[in-house]
Structures are given as structure tokens and as C-alpha cells.
Amino acid sequence: MVIDPKKCVACGNCVAVCPMGAIYIDPVKNRATVNQDECVECYACFRGMSTEHLNPGVVRTIRKLGKWFRWRFDPEPDVCPTAAITEQELVWPRIVRRAFSDPVVPHESTGVHGRGTEEVKTNDVTNRVGPDDAGFTVEFGRPTIGVRFRQIQEMTRALAAMGVEFEKRNPVTSLMADTATGKIREDILNEKILSAIVEFKTSLPNVPAILQKVKEVAARLDTVVAVGAAARCDAEGENGLEEILAREGFSFIRGKTNLGLGRASAEQSPQQVAHASAG
Amino acid sequence: MTNTLHRYGNEKNLHDDFIVFAIPCRGHNDQDSVPKLKRFLLIASKHNPVNLGDGSHGGIYRPSKALNPTAHWSRDSTPDFETVIEGVTNPTTVAAVFDNKEAVDMFVAELQKEDLGLSINISALVDRAEECCQDAGIARHSVEYSLGFMGRTERLADRHVLELSTMCGHGMISFTFARKMIDWVKEGRRTPEQACNYFSRFCSCGIFNPTRAKQILEEARGRNS
Question: Which pLDDT score, from 0 to 100, does residue B74 have?
Fold first, then answer.
């Protein structure tokens, strides 16, 4: 993202909305400026802010006058008055920043928006996580801290060494040079993104060891790691994962519950099956 | 919608926070999913959701790209449900946010009857979602638990900022902006409702819960603490 210096009036509204803190008012130029190394191309400023199309010269004069009189200027805080925030053409490898940071761009590898993962949200259709499995999502950089792929690689290498098999339909996996070792493509290692999710499943007895390893590696990283653990429930809606997590000292008050109402297009619904049987 | 999984909060302020979402599964049931996703949103809109959204286009509160300067004095913040429903043009995740369990119960009951065939998930307190399932006579199929944050947690913001910011798990609500709005509410420069409208416009999936945000802002201001 760039800010057009001809249009910018240095109102500072975009400074606060940047999740990465990458925008600042350059004291020499007196214009908002984007630190390109820190910008993750999330588009929060470009898309999230409303825009006016005011004349920059007029706005600057009014602002100068207000500043001289020390008037308190109280504009809407989510507006760029001169539409100065401008997209730039992204090329490889910078383009991965947007793919992993802008939630409205679907990931090419999975076709899913956001962080590009389906996890157990579609488990009623795919049955990817079975009754004896635990599905894991290890997310880096959330909330609004950001992460570079180099740090993610530290975790993927450690997990691969434990024999973890990474989910194939996952954007991070698609950028691995070697899924057996957890090595990520060399050319993107320094790219900073808002967050990314590493996804894999393991057997329930392996859960304590995995959690221990994730905790251990997370402590060495200069970012925050958010962990999700998922399980398939039995006919009564219960699962064996809760007990393991409690035993390991984790509290888990919040979660996502799949109601089991999904099915593949070709399959018949329970109502259709009942109707067919009755017929 | 992992973006809804790690909402920061406690059992009290997450008690009435429910996101119900529908997601097509690529290669299995996404081909004919657009009318079903629209149907999901239409049904949801009848049960008074506090937000509604589509993962590609946004929620009921959206930024304007041609704002009139008079907006600084009288800004239109009318929720626009129709644009969200009409705007679904491709297979994506759609969501409805509720601030009470009764509405979720009625919505889920209607979804069961409708039998869309899409995966339906409730993102909420695990126990509350389970209650919803029990009330609907559904056995949970799968559950994903948030185990919270690890690593450099000292880089995170304070409680109120985190509670507001993590309501957009994609990170579109920055810590700095959340802090700024808390300060503006404290200074009386904006009402909690106005601050919630600003936040909602940044959430590009429409999963931000303005009712909960208002409670957090009021608590941060000190009235309800």
C-alpha cells in the first residue's frame, strides 16, 4: 500500500487503523508514509476507511489554520478526506503478503477466503478428522502482531520432526518446499504477513506431546501463537479430546461447533432417505 | 471462520455472543451453493441478527467510497441486510451474529427444516453451543476448541482492547484504533454506538458483534464495572 503525497493532508486517521502500525506521519514531508517492510498488504486502510474526495490544498489550509489557533479538530476517525490511500501492483514474493493478510482474497490453493482453511467446519462433509483423531490449527501472528514465514518455519520444522503430516489443502502447506521436513520456500521466508494457519491432524494419544512442542517452540518466536484443537464427536455429541485438554491444564471455554447438517451434493438428506424408504 | 474462534473474553461477556455460519465444502457441495447461502442469510435476517456478512463482500455496515462531507455531522449508519444477501455471488462463508440464545434456537430450528445441505457451525462458548444443539435435538458432529494464545503474549494489548480487536479475528481492527475509540468514548467525544459503527465497517466478514462491543466500551468507560 502507498499513500499519494500529492493528496495526503497528514490528518493521521490512517495511522491508527493500521493493524501493523506501519503508517506514520513523516516529520520532514508532513505526509502519511507507509513503512513497506512492516506493511502486510492487509488492505484494512484502503478498504476499511471511507473516503471523501476533497481538495487537498483547501483541506491543508483549513488544517493549518486550525493548528495555529490550537483548535481541537474532531473529524470522523475512519475517513480519508482526500482518498490518498493507493493500491500498488504486487509482484512475487510480496504478493503472498496480501494472500495471507487480506481476508477477502481467496487463497488459490484452497479457494477459501480469510486464512484459507476449512478445518472441522466442513468435517460433516469430508470426515477429515475421524473419531480417534485430533485436528490442530496453529495460527501465527494473531491478533494483529504479524509474523514472518521464517518464524512459521521454525514451528513447521519442529512439528515435521515429530512425524506430523500437514493438511494438504492448506495455504501454508502449499508454500512448503518439502512437507516431510516442514521447510518453507526460501524466497518468502522474510515476507511479513498478518497471520497464517498451519493445519494438521494427529491421533488422540499424541495430543499432549504436540501441545508441549507447540508451547515450547512458540516461546522462542517473536510473535503470538493461537492454537485450536478439534475432535469428531460420537453419536451422543461427546468426544475424548476435552478430557485430554483438561488433563493438560488447558481451559477451553470458546469454540466452534459443527452441527452435522452438511453433506456432499450427491448424497441424500436424512429426510430424502426417510421419504424414499417410506415410498 | 477461524477468525471467530479466538475471541478474547470471559464467560460473562461471551455468554450472549453467537456466530452461526454456513460454509460450502470445495469439491463436495460448493457448485450449487450460492442460492443456499442466500437462503441462509434470508432466514437469519428474520431472527434479528446484530450483524450479517459474507466472507467476500462484508457485513451490514460498510465503508463508503464517496462520502459527503456532511457525514461528519450526520452519518448514515443504517444496517443494510439486503445488500449482504444480494451480494453473495460466489461460494463463500456467510455468517449471522446474534446477541441472544433464543434467536439462535429459532434460527437453527428453521435451518434444520430447510435442510440446505451446507455445513452449519456455531461459534460461541462451547457449553452455550452445546445447549443450542441439545435444544434442537442435534448431537454435535465436531468441535474445535480455542486453547488461547501462546508465545510472546506480552506483545498483546490490554483486556478491553483485546476484546474489541479480536472480534475481527482477521485483524482488521487494530489495537491502536480500538484504544483510540475507548479513549474517545471516555472523553465523551463519541458514544459507544458510534464507536461500534466505526469498528463494524472494518470487519470485512460481518462477524463483529456491536452489542457486545457496546458493553465492552461501557465497561471500559467505567459505568458498568
Answer: 86
Is the pLDDT at B138 greater than 80, yes or no? Answer: yes
B134 vs A contacts (CB less than 8 Å): 237
Q: Looking at the complex, does the CB of residue A72 fall below 8 Å from at least one CB of chain B?
A: no
**How many Å apart are CA A137 and CA A255, to the nearest integer?**
12
**Which CATH number is associated with domain A106-247?**
3.30.70
Mutate to test the interface with B, among A227, A257, A258, A273 (most CBs of B within 10 A): A257
* CATH level 3 topology of A2-86: Alpha-Beta Plaits (3.30.70)
Q: A65: which 3 cell numbers?
A: 489554520
Asked if B28 and A195 come within 8 Å (Cβ–Cβ), the reply is no
**C-alpha B138 chain-centroid distance:** 23
CB B142 within 8 A of CB A258: yes
Where are the domain boundaries for CATH 3.30.70 in chain A?
Answer: 2-86, 106-247
Window 128-157 of B: residues touching A by CB (8 A cutoff) are 129-130, 132-134, 136, 138-153, 155-156
Of A50, A103, A254, the CB nearest to B14: A254
Which positions ≥6 away from A252 have C-beta within 8 Å? A229, A242, A245, B126, B145, B146, B147
Give the rounded percent of residues in chain B with a pLDDT score beyond 90: 89
For chain B, the C-alpha Rg in angstroms (whole number) is 18
Q: Is residue A111 over pLDDT 90?
A: no
Q: What is the ipTM of this complex?
A: 0.96
Q: How would you classify the pairing of strands A50-51 and A79-80?
A: parallel
pTM, 2 dp? 0.94
Q: How far, in Å, CA of B84 to CA of A155, rounded?
A: 38
- What is the number of other CB atoms lying within 10 angstroms of the CB of residue B212? 23
Nearest to B117 among A76, A259, A263 (CB): A263
| pLDDT tens-digit map of A215-234 | 999 999 999 999 999 999 99
Q: What is the pLDDT of residue B184?
A: 97
Each residue's pLDDT tens digit, A133-188: 999 999 999 898 999 999 999 999 999 999 999 999 899 999 999 999 999 999 99
Taking the CB of residue A118, how many other CB atoms lie within 10 A of it? 25
